[in-house]
Structures are given as C-alpha cells and as structure tokens.
Design brief:
2 domains, mainly alpha, Arc Repressor Mutant, subunit A, Ferritin
Length: 275
Amino acid sequence: MALSDTQLVVLSAACQRPDRSVYPLTTKLPGGAAAKVLGSLLKQNLIKEVQAKREDTVWREDKKRGRLTLRAMPAASKALGIDEASTEGEAETAANTEAKPARSGKSGKSKPKPRGTRADSKQAKLIEMLNVLLADELTAISQYMVHSEMCANWGYEHLHKKIEARAIQEMKHAEKLISRIIFLEGTPRVDRLNKINIGPDVPTQLANDLEAEHVAWKAYNDAIHLAGEVGDAPTRNMLEGTARDEDAHIDWLEEQQDQIKQIGVELYLSNQTKE
C-alpha cells in the first residue's frame, strides 16, 4: 500500500509507543488535514478506534461507545517493516517495569529512577548515525571540491565539471541529513570532519574518492537497517534514495579506473580536456 510521508510519520510514532497511541501527533497538521490523514489510515485498517481513557486525547465522541481515541493496528508495524514480536516484547518489558517499581530501604517505599525506553535508545542511536553520515558528506564535499579545482587548474575541464557536480550532490545529501536530524529533535554536528585525502594526481584522486564512497555506502546501509528497527519509514526512505546516489558515484569512479587500465592514463587525461 502506498502511504504518504505524513502517514508514515504518524504510524512510526504510534508503533514506538507502548500503548500504540496515535496521539500526540508528531507532525503539525491543520485540523482538517489531520482528520483526512487519520481517516485514510482508519479505512486501510492501519489504526483503530478504542475507548479513550481519562488521559487520552479524544479522536471523536460516539453516542453508543462514548469517547474514542486511536491506536495503531498490527498491520501498521507490517506496513513499516517492523518486527511485531520485537515491538510487543519491548512494550511488555516497559509495562512490567512500570508495574513493579523499584524499592529501597526497610520502609519499602518506591524509589523512582529515571529511565528511557528501548525505542528512545534506538532513536538516539539513529540520530547519532545520521550525524556520522553528515560527517562523511561534509568531508566528501571538501575533498571533492579540492579535486575538482585541481583538475580545473590542470586543464581537465570535463573531469572538473564531473567532480564538481558530485560535490554539489553531496551538499544536497548533507542538507537532507541536517533537516532530518532537526526534525527528530537532534543537533546536527557540522563541526565533525573525517580525514580528507587529497590526491596529488588524477588516478590517486579517483582511488581516494572511491574509498570515501565505499565507506559512505556501507554507513548508509547500516543506517537504513537501523531506521527499519526503529520503525522510522520516512528516514529509511530518505536514506535509501541517497544510497542509490552513492551507488551511481561508485559506478562512475570504477568506470574511470577501468578506462585508465584499458587505454592508459595519458590518453584518458587527453580526453578530459574538453568540457
């Protein structure tokens, strides 16, 4: 089934809550838009109406059933690619912890302890992973721009334009990561950079850039897996799109290396002088 980004965000948040409550909505929507989004999810049997408790947000009031709120159905987890058994286990663990408060001393009085759910821990890990990817992208931008300008200085205009375009695409990747980190209420770490490997000649530049792309490709796949575990489908979709771009970068760099092996570096470079 095709779900909008807004619907994915609503379902992801609900599936991470122990009671699978749709409320509070984590995305800001006008009243009419919210009703339309939730109504569509109801029709698809991804969420259901249940009687609201005192502390619940009321979705609507029914003459026979009274005050109703919304809960995510098991089908919602399936739509997001979440392991339902794992989700139920986490919810049960959280419920058991709440049902059995810790006791200390002879008085037997409960001693509250600050704690976070496993979902919270995974969310924090995902934000940190996004910052790791951001560092990769910011490092790549600097490395590729230097390589691009070096090629321009050597008169390899075609190569200059190609590498510059790749650097610009990495800037767009970094922008998406920053936006997503902020949406998840994290702090983008733009102060982090990895080691920048500047090549003294074109073959070394291609090799260094290819190594950077392989590192980024692996990191993106790790992040995609983590986003799936968290149940954050919009983040996973964004990462999958960027991973496809990294695939294309790897293909292009490997093609250049193959051409150098086949025709020699001198002839290859002579073909790079034209724009």
